[in-house]
Amino acid sequence: MSNNNDAVGVLRTIRDAQPAHYLFKIESFSILSEEKIEKYESDDFEVGGYKWGLCFYPNGNKKRNGDGHISLYLVIRDTDELPPGWEVNVQFKFFVFDHVRDKYLTVQDADCRTRRYHQMRTEWGISKLISLDTFKKSTNGYLLDDSCVLGVEVFVTKYAGKGECLSMIKEPRGNTYTWKVDNFSAISMQYLRSEEFNIGGRNWKLVLYPKGDAEAKGRSLSLYLSVADCEKLPLNWKKYARFKLRVRNQVGGVHQERQGDLYICALSNAR
């Protein structure tokens, strides 16, 4: 495969495989050219859930400096059926068949840019696809017995309707909660939950295991931070929290303190 990035930002390559989406054969090209027919539009074809067509200028699109060339454009159709404010993002590649070598010349934007189709812009293309001199020269193989074959591949970038917003609060106001547990020695339940408290716009609870939990069972006191209303959260909701859990020494000694940071997900914080 060879390539050339020309002065107008167009990348040209050679390949064996035909275009995946649409082929457009033109017979009696000379009639189109000599009769000064400005443009010809192909039938519809569908790619990515949208209808498209090719718009071919046999003598070049003079309004876009295509004089002396053939011009080719990809047009989106049936836009009246699309929702208000629609837009479609597309990459495309044009093809010209070389009958002599049985290969395809491919032409596309050199930077493979994505073109945005919307109500005010329903076509994009290349005004200088091939010069008419190059196109008509028999040894190049593009025009054989007054016929040529053009094609296109269209790659639609669809928005899947998913995304996320990351919002960070460094030091939320009122970021301390104190939970006093009375009659600790008389607790017979496996665990206790505190009242709900709100920090950083989210409701939380503390969960205390007086005799420990999991690997710490029977050996240590266990304390957890938990989202209070996790069952009401949207699917795949998550919150990053950095926190300190502290057991206060009530006679003036050193407090027992542990710092943690973790992601709390809607499906995994049901303590």
Q: What kind of sheet is the major sheet? A: 7 strands, antiparallel
Number of DSSP strands?
18
Uncertain segments are 1-7
Helices, by number, come to: 2
Q: What share of residues is helical?
A: under 10%
Shape: rod-shaped
Radius of gyration over alpha carbons? Answer: 34 Å
Average pLDDT, to the nearest integer?
86
Please state roughly what percent of the residues sit in beta strands, choosing from under 5%, 5-15%, 15-25%, 25-35%, 35-45% or over 45%: 35-45%
How far the N terminus sits from the C terminus, by CA atoms, comes to 61 Å
The structure class reads mainly beta
SSE order in H/E notation?
EEEHEEEEEEEEHEEEEEEE
Note down, in words, how this protein is organized.
The N terminus is likely disordered. It contains two helices and 18 strands. The strands form four sheets. Strands 1, 2, 3, 8, 9, 10 and 12 form a seven-stranded antiparallel sheet that branches. A hairpin with a 4-residue loop joins β1 and β2. With 271 residues, it is mainly beta.
